[in-house]
Specification:
The chain is of the alpha/beta class and about 325 residues long. It has two domains: about 170 residues, NAD(P)-binding Rossmann-like Domain (Rossmann fold, 3-Layer(aba) Sandwich); about 140 residues, Orthogonal Bundle (N-(1-d-carboxylethyl)-l-norvaline Dehydrogenase, domain 2). Helices cover about 50% and strands about 10% of the residues. The structure holds nicotinamide-adenine-dinucleotide (NAD) and SN-glycerol-3-phosphate. Nicotinamide-adenine-dinucleotide (NAD) binds next to α1. It catalyses: sn-glycerol 3-phosphate + NAD(+) = dihydroxyacetone phosphate + NADH + H(+); sn-glycerol 3-phosphate + NADP(+) = dihydroxyacetone phosphate + NADPH + H(+). It is found in: Cytoplasm. InterPro entries: 6-PGluconate_DH-like_C_sf, 6PGD_dom2, G3P_DH_NAD-dep, G3P_DH_NAD-dep_C, G3P_DH_NAD-dep_N, NAD(P)-bd_dom_sf. Pathway: Membrane lipid metabolism; glycerophospholipid metabolism.
């Protein structure tokens, strides 16, 4: 459900894993164009889909008879989308989140929104996350990801359905940690994009990435995550990929901020979702609700929503009181 960059690339992954896929596209004209040309020109023009992928804009047709329901819409529209789709959701099928965000207002993770709106039990929701820049996956460059779900049978089923020659899924029972890692790395990537834009080098970006991972793990553990998850693909793996790549929309958004562009200007110039821009606020509120200190997220939030400059953020971060690395 969703034919943006990742929805389309993941449809190709599943097809290359031998799974028949029906991909739902919101706009009928795009669905028709992809079905006919086998190419999603709006999001991933370099990828040619095989005949295993059928494309439709009809929700009932997309969900009818499906064994696994994969969701790849922007995090902030998921609730509204699911409310409209509820009656078509197939009985018993696992619901898989490809999304990396935290809902504004409710501060819920995507699988929590899925459980609530689709009225499915916690053991039916799954998250797939890792260092998976859509363009590289679409180019079939080898990569791996984490498939996290509380029930062994559910995570194995989803892992099997997406195990392609160039895409290696690992399983993990830690849904909370996998989702928190995916959502927070987008905010850290915004900060690294800004640092690059300001001409900072590897020491600065490695510091942001490492301390960013520390605050991500701090939040995850406070919410019940397994600390080991943050050392894995969804944690350090995705942090490295997103923070270091110019293909990352969050990184690009950070670069544009460092050039003095406004959030509105940057948002208007793209059809792509940089999840960290909105989730920054919900992550900060979530952290405050469990008394977790997230200074980098706080700094990015201050730039995006409170009118700070990147220089002010640097000064604030560097003048914090000294503390143990372990805290
Ligand atoms: N692109 C990547 O490399 C990548 C990799 C892993 C995870 N993700 C995550 O996957 C999720 C989807 O990202 P994407 O890259 O496919 O985004 P995208 O911006 O490329 O595409 C978003 C899709 O959602 C659709 N959409 C927009 N508003 C909608 C609405 N109100 N209702 C339904 N559909 C709507 C768009 O038409 C588009 O098809 C995000 O949470 C992102 O963080 C992306
Ligand atoms: O382009 P971004 O910044 O949304 O990042 C894409 C993926 O999440 C990388 O794993």
């Amino acid at each position: 459900m969703g034919s943006g960059s990742w929805g389309t690339a993941f449809a190709a992954v599943m097809a290359d894993a031998g799974t028949d896929v029906t991909m739902w596209s919101r706009r009928p004209e795009l669905a028709e164009a992809i079905e006919t040309t086998r190419v999603n020109d709006d999001y991933l023009p370099s990828l040619r889909l095989t005949d295993r992928v059928h494309v439709t804009s009809d929700v009932a047709e997309a969900m009818d008879g499906s064994d696994i329901l994969v969701l790849a819409v922007p995090s902030q529209t998921l609730r509204e989308n699911l409310e409209g789709w509820r009656e078509h959701i197939p009985d018993g099928a696992p619901l898989v989140s490809l999304m990396k965000g935290i809902e504004l207002g409710t501060l819920k993770r995507m699988t929590e929104v899925m459980e609530e709106v689709a009225e499915v039990p916690a053991d039916r929701v799954v998250v797939v996350s890792g260092p998976n820049l859509a363009k590289e996956v679409a180019d079939k460059q080898p990569a791996a990801a984490v498939v996290a779900a509380s029930r062994h049978g559910v995570r194995s089923k989803v892992a099997e359905a997406c195990a392609a020659p160039y895409f290696r899924p690992y399983t993990n029972a830690d849904v909370v940690g996998t989702e928190i890692a995916g959502a927070v790395k987008n905010v850290i990537a915004l900060s690294v994009g800004m640092a690059h834009g300001l001409g900072m080098g590897e020491n600065s970006t490695a510091t942001l990435l490492t301390r960013g991972l520390a605050e991500t793990a701090r939040l995850g553990v406070a919410l019940g995550a397994d600390p080991q998850t943050f050392l894995g693909l969804a944690g350090v793996g995705d942090m490295m990929a997103t923070c270091s790549s110019r293909l990352s929309r969050n990184h690009q958004f950070g670069l544009a901020l460092s050039e003095g562009k406004t959030v509105e200007e940057i948002t208007a110039a793209t059809n792509q979702t940089a999840e960290g821009v909105k989730s920054c606020r919900s992550i900060l509120e979530l952290a405050r609700s469990v008394h977790v200190d997230m200074p980098i997220v706080e700094g990015v939030h201050a730039i995006l929503h409170e009118g700070w400059t990147p220089d002010e953020m640097v000064r604030a971060l560097m003048s914090r009181s000294r503390k143990s690395e372990r805290v």
